Amino acid sequence: MTQNEMTSDDSTDPAAVGTTATPDPSGEPLVDQSIEVDGTDSSAQAGREQVIEARDLNVFYGDVQALQDITMSIPENQVTAMIGPSGCGKSTFLRSINRMNDLIDTARVDGELYFEGKNIYDDDVDPVALRRRIGMVFQHPNPFPKSIYDNVAYGLRIQDETENLDQKVETALKRAALWDEVEDQLDKSALDLSGGQQQRLCIARAIAVDPDVILMDEPASALDPIATSKIEDLIEELAEEFTVVIVTHNMQQAARISDKTAVFLTGGELVEFGDTQSIFENPEHQRVEDYITGKFG
Ligand SMILES: Nc1ncnc2c1ncn2[C@@H]1O[C@H](COP(=O)(O)OP(=O)(O)OP(=O)(O)O)[C@@H](O)[C@H]1O
Ligand SMILES: [Mg+2]
C-alpha cells in the first residue's frame, strides 16, 4: 500500500460509504456493477456507431415541458456540442443521458433513450451503474475536499479497483493534461488548485474509471481564456478514446472542437442536428442561422 492509499480516509466521506445508490451530484459511479447490454432493444445497435440514441424523448418538470420529442443519435468517439439559448433544455437533455434527472423530484421522462442499444429507462437499469459508464463534468469545478490523489482515486476505490492504483491515478492525470503540474504534490488539497486545474482534475476523476461517455455541461465557462484553451485541447484529445457530449454557450468553442452540433431552441425543441461545419456554414433553418449569427439568444 502506498502512502497515498494509507492517507486516504474514505470512511469519513458519506458519499463513499458502502455500495448503495447514494445520490452524488458529481455523477461519479458509486457501485461496481455493470449494466447488462444485450443489444436486442434497438436496431441502432448495428455497427455500434451511435452510442446514444434518443427517440421522442420528452422531459417535464411538473407540468412544464422542458424537452419536446427529441430524436437524435450521438456518434461514438466524437465530440457532439449542444448549443441554444438559456432555458432551451440543454442541461436537461445532458442529465437525461445518465439519469441525473432522476435526482430531481419533479422531473419526468417520456420516450426512449438508448445507450449502446439498451433503453436506459428500462426498469432493470441501475442508474448508478449507468453513471459509471457515462460520467459527467459540471460548469463549476467540484473537486471533493480531499487530496488531488484521493479525488482521482475516488471512483476506483469505490469499485474496488485499487490494484496499481498509483499507476491508474497517474494515467488519469496524464490523460487530463494535469500530471506535469501536480506530480510532486499529489497529497495537496484539490481545493488549493486553480479553477482551470480543478476542472482538469474533475475530468481526471471522471475518466479514471474508464467510462464510455463523458458529458460536460459548460465545462469552461467559468475559466479564463488560457484555461479554456487547455480544456478545449483536452476535449479534442479525449474524443479519441471517449464519446464526448458538451453543452456550451460559446459558438466559437462549439465550432472549434465539435464534430456534430445540436441546436436547441426555446421551448425545448431540437431544431437542427448535423455536422458542425454544415450547421455553422450552411444551416437549414433560418432560426438556427439567426441564433448562431447572434441575432437572438
Ligand atoms: N430542477 C428544475 N425544476 C424545475 N424546472 C427546471 C429545473 N431545471 C430546469 N428547469 C426548467 O427546464 C427548462 C430547461 O432548463 P435547462 O436547465 O435544461 O436549460 P439550459 O438550456 O441548460 O439553460 P442554460 O443555458 O441557462 O443552462 C427551463 O425552463 C428551466 O426553467
Ligand atoms: Mg444549462
Textual characterization of the structure:
The chain is an alpha/beta fold and 297 residues long. Helices cover 32% and strands 23% of the residues. The protein has a 6-stranded mixed beta sheet, sandwiched between helices. The protein has a 4-stranded antiparallel beta sheet with strand order 2-1-4-5, with helices on one face. Helix 4 (148-158) packs across helix 5 (165-175), helix 5 (165-175) packs across helix 7 (195-208) and helix 7 (195-208) packs parallel to helix 8 (225-238). The longest helix has 14 residues, at 195-208. Bound molecules: adenosine-5'-triphosphate and magnesium ion (MG). Adenosine-5'-triphosphate binds next to strand 2 and helix 2.
How would you summarize this macromolecular structure in one to three sentences?
With 297 residues, the protein is α/β, with parallel strands linked by helices. The chain has 11 helices and 10 strands. It has helices at 3-7, 90-97, 127-133, 148-158, 165-175, 179-182, 195-208, 225-238, 251-257, 276-281, 286-292; strands at residues 50-61, 64-75, 79-83, 107-115, 118-119, 134-137, 213-217, 243-247, 260-265, 269-275.
